Amino acid sequence: MRNSLWFALSGFVALAAATPAAADGAPKVFADCSDCPEMVVVPAGTFKMGAEGGEEGRPEGPIRDIAIARPFALGSHEVTVDQFERFATETGYQAVGDCRSWVASTTSVELIPGSDFHKPSPDTELHGTLPVTCVAWSGAKAYVAWLSARTGQSYRLPTEAEWEYAARAGSSAAYPWGGKAEDGCAYANLYDEAGRKPELTSPVVACNDGHIKASPVKSLKPNAFGLYDMIGNVWEWTQDCYVAPYPAAAPKDGSAYELSGPCPRRSVRGGSWMTAAFRDRAAWRGRDPEEQESWIFGFRIARDLSPSEAK
């Protein structure tokens, strides 16, 4: 894993939105069936997306004004292994190929023969409420198509704008909890003292979230919108085709940016439990091929709301 290049940032601006609330003031939470993912209603609002600066060759700007006109629903947490297992069992889902995973003995990322979302590497087995990983963008798309057919609702991947809007949850800082990564261990599973790997040269965050690897979803505190693990734990696929810098023609209504032809790379967001802190910021943009399966890549889902549900 490469070291991050650190650059000064400026231009973070607050969102103009309020936390969605149920009658008791808490975020509005629902599920479409007993074993469906838990969803949180995210309010309509406006915000400034992106940041000035970024890593070399990976600009995070120019900063754009985004207006999300209607509320939407977002998974309260990343899709879990058990939730993905139900889909895989019912549909006969087959992985695209071998998963890319970290191998400590060689201090490198390698394709692991025979790996899958249950066993991304010989020394790691995933189960239960751990976030599912080793799922390509196409696999995440297959999951939301299955869930839509199962429930009759419009499930999908979140757009990049929706993701950043929800991750910030009213924050104007580099991280949703403030300007310093080390203040985040109550909210995010970061590359910190607990997960320190002597073979990596990336600096650890100076705090301890208590998790050596990926943590079960909802292990830490939610953000102001009632969403868990938006930062850290595992990277999350979004719908958008990645282009940097943001093109002038990019949508400003919260919808996804797509190309008319094939998309070389899709945007991934949020960082992971072993990602350098600079890449865990709300504005940082990852980009990877649609068919890539990785031990630190997962996803969460979005759902469109009817007018009555959005009230």
From TrEMBL:
Keywords: Signal. Transmembrane segments: none annotated. Pfam families: FGE-sulfatase. The keyword Signal applies. Residues 1-23 form the signal peptide. GO terms for molecular function: formylglycine-generating oxidase activity. Residues 36-303 form the Sulfatase-modifying factor enzyme-like domain. InterPro entries: CTDL_fold, Sulfatase_Mod_Factor_Kinase, SUMF_dom, SUMF_sf. This is Formylglycine-generating enzyme required for sulfatase activity.
